[in-house]
């Protein structure tokens, strides 16, 4: 579950101190992550209900709930992508071209973004990237 930035202990680690993030930016990031988490909770609920329906012989209902669960999953993935892109844009707008800030990204998101960026830098024959 996403915790609003104002409730996080240890200070704001999602936005770097140089990002220029506003309270509105923080609220938008939290909104997107919360929407993703809500969609994934709905997905899990649909899959649980689908499993129960299937076990009780209600195959058509099980299929319908499975399809609905997959739709919620796609929505959750999309909201996470939007949150990833949003926080990355906010944190990197004022950065130098050879610099990248991964604050606020989930670990796998950070790995994916960094991998793509390294490939892009190699293609441009860059001499380095500051992370």
Any key phrases for this structure?
3 helices, single chain, mainly alpha, 131 residues
Summarize the entry for a quick read.
With 131 residues, the protein is mainly α.
Structure commentary:
The chain is mostly helical and 131 residues long. It is built from 3 helices and no strands. The radius of gyration is 19 Å and the shape is elongated. α1 packs antiparallel against α2. It starts with 22 loop residues before the first helix and ends in an 8-residue tail after the last helix. The model is unreliable at 1-12 (pLDDT under 50). It has helices spanning 23-55, 59-92, 107-123.
Principal-axis shape equals elongated
What fraction of residues sit in β-strands?
under 5%
Give the biggest sheet.
none
List the helices and strands in order.
Answer: HHH
Total strands: 0
Q: Note the total helix count.
A: 3
Helix content: 55-70%
Distance between the termini: 27 Å
Low-pLDDT sequence parts: 1-12
Which whole number gives the mean pLDDT?
88
Radius of gyration, rounded?
19 Å
Structural class: mainly alpha
Q: Can you lay out the helices and strands and say which pair or pack?
A:
Layout: H1 23-55, H2 59-92, H3 107-123
Helix pairs in contact: 1-2
